[in-house]
Amino acid sequence: MEEKKEFLRCRAILEILGKPKDHVENTRDLLLGRLRDDPTLSILKEYSAPLSPKENTLFTTYVELEMVFKDLTSLIGFCFDYMPSSLDIEKPASISFENHELSAILNDLQAKLHNVDMAAKTFRAERDVLKKNLNLMMLNTVTILSKIGKSTLDELSKFSGIEKVQLEKFLDDRVKEGVIEKNGDRFQIASKKQV
């Protein structure tokens, strides 16, 4: 006799944060459209919170859903794809499954984790290249400005457009490295250092 599988009844909250306001609303509507069309779940109830401003220019909203999933794999797929901020399984009270089902779930989990790890490594490498190029551009800016007599922290900040606090840290780090020299309140490229 085949065992009857029970559907999984859950409540989930999905949060959206971004800007501009229209983009957040469109993202929420797109998300709900995708969920309504998903054959692995059925939405029983949904509530969309009104958008509210957060910080200076960001907007936030959330969607609260009551759903039924056909199986545990579908529920876990939903969690990976939509990353709910909260999830409560209401029914059944206990869940049992076979080892091949758990193996499939764990393999899917590993595949997702590998993808996330690869994306993080890619972003880290891109960030490092951008940071290196930005530092070279800042160094070139200091070189040009100091050659035309604009070499105090205030002048360098004003003419480069770089905030004083950030520029001061950059300059201090380059002085420690010996790339930039500081004479009084003026900065210049170190005479013995080839850039």
Low-confidence sequence ranges: none
Domain unit count:
2
Rg over CA atoms, rounded to whole Å, is: 27 Å
Class derived from helix and strand content: alpha+beta
The end-to-end span amounts to 78 Å
User: How much of the residues is beta strand, in percent?
Assistant: 15-25%
Mean pLDDT: 86
What do we call the CATH topology of the largest domain? Answer: Alpha-Beta Plaits
**Looking at the structure, what is the overall shape?**
elongated
User: How much helix is in the residues?
Assistant: 40-55%
What's the helix count? 5
**CATH arch. level architecture of the largest domain:** 2-Layer Sandwich
CATH class of the largest domain: Alpha Beta
Could you tell me the number of beta strands? 7
Order of helices and strands: EHEEEHEHHHEE
Largest sheet: 5 strands, antiparallel
Descriptive report:
The chain has 195 residues and is of the alpha+beta class. The protein folds into two domains: 8-95, Alpha-Beta Plaits (2-Layer Sandwich), CATH 3.30.70; 119-189, Winged helix-like DNA-binding domain superfamily/Winged helix DNA-binding domain (Arc Repressor Mutant, subunit A, Orthogonal Bundle). 51% of the residues lie in helices and 25% in strands. The protein is built from five helices and seven strands. Strands 1, 2, 3, 4 and 5 form a five-stranded antiparallel β-sheet that branches. It has a two-stranded antiparallel sheet with strand order 6-7. A hairpin with a 3-residue loop joins strand 3 (52-54) and strand 4 (58-69). Helix 3 (99-147) crosses helix 4. The protein is elongated, with a radius of gyration of 27 Å.
